[in-house]
Amino acid sequence: GAVVSQHPSRVICKSGTSVKIECRSLDFQATTMFWYRQFPKQSLMLMATSNEGSKATYEQGVEKDKFLINHASLTLSTLTVTSAHPEDSSFYICSASGTGSALTVPDTQYFGPGTRLTVL
Amino acid sequence: GESVGLHLPTLSVQEGDNSIINCAYSNSASDYFIWYKQESGKGPQFIIDIRSNMDKRQGQRVTVLLNKTVKHLSLQIAATQPGDSAVYFCAEYVSGGYNKLIFGAGTRLAVHP
Lengths: 120, 113
Fold this sequence. Notes:
The complex is a heterodimer of chains A (120) and B (113). Chain A is an all-beta fold and 120 residues long. Chain A is built from no helices and 11 strands.
């Protein structure tokens, strides 16, 4: 139970293009979803938090116009990296917390498998 | 970001030995802690959690100890196996409306046969 999926798992794009990453909770309702980025050999850095139907709350230093987050339903959140540049290359991970019988530990964040973004 | 690990310490153990991974957390108001395991190229996987009203919690082959006096958390893995090789992160829960987790820097566990 408590499965979170991400798509795509890996994406390579040209500089200046936009990339959309999807995060889905498969067996529970995700009232809150989180987006992290992780550089090699480093810890997870929280980018933003979103509640379903509300605007995302971005962490300090994260450009909301560059990293567009939409949490339109209780099972889906999307992160769009707009006008991507090589410095945006990273491992992007989403997590979700919420309600449902699949959740063995309520309020805990369950993580997706991550998306490796490479911007050429 | 609030937690960026510039260093990734490594703990090397022999297969079958017990492993102890330590973590110092920052916020004395944190009242919920989680240990995650992250294998290469994958997202973090929940291992075990503990609330601040406890000082010890056991799972299958894992035990988490919490010392609130010195703000220290540890993860003990019994009879470490090659499949336990991964990076382990502790995370503390910061209250404030959005269940925000603060991650530690992480420790790489390398299990040798």
